[in-house]
Predict the 3D structure of the following.
Amino acid sequence: MKYKSEIAANSPFNLDNTAAYANWRGKKLDAGNRALTSGFVEIFDPMNMRRSEIEAVLSRCRDTNIAFYSTAPVSDDSVLRANLRAMADRLELGRPEGHRSKGESSIVALTVSNRPSQRGFIPYTRKALNWHTDGYYNARDNTIRGFILHCVQDAQAGGVNQLLDNDIAYIRLRDENPNYITALMHPEAMTIPETFEEDGVLRPASVGPVFWVEGGHLIMRYTARKRSIEWRDDANTRAAVTFLQDLLIAGDPLVREAKLLPGQGVINNNALHNRTSFDPTETGNQSRRIMYRVRFNNRIGSND
């Protein structure tokens, strides 16, 4: 299945419609600035979210694609997993992705690990995670459009998450040079070469754009990795990639940052995100940090 953008004439993502873009841009920047001080959505009972709690999450995701939330910490693992799936159901996320490391309820536990299926993958180490969107290596028919990241136990030191609304990244690129958007929407802009997984299964090459539009929403697949990635050999593509990498390294003013504590999490439309390194004094496969992640092919409130 090929990537295809659906850009209407009246869309702000139509490079010829400068009026629609200016209107949308202003609203996005205003929402991004308000979000810097919006705090967490308090969720009293994840199994039975109140309508006001649901709307608070949906509203923030409509405005900025990101909603931080807070619940009471839960010690019973089966209850916690059920809570996360119940929240996802109320937010109309649908069936979770079938990730290779999924556990009960299709939830992946991100923690320091030496298991054969996780060994060597940075999410299962104490190392920093560079900027990316989840599933940037997935096939087109398994695009990740939303995920929940929930803190079971925080690290003793470090382990801070940063997130940036993909729409803001688009704005920065388009404001700098609209040709950057054209380049990054090319169907062969970014290639993740084929590779063998730890279990010997061949993961085919993933070729596609960085940005495309579906149902009026901007979708993004991106990684700042330097190895095992091929960018289209084009001057505008190279310049766009450099500009975006420099922007993320320098730090955009609308980046959201949080060291999540037990019971806290973030629900988002697969926003750009990273993670700082953590527990530098530990050795081997040692760290108390555990994050639960569940990913979806749908956006938050996909039927909203």
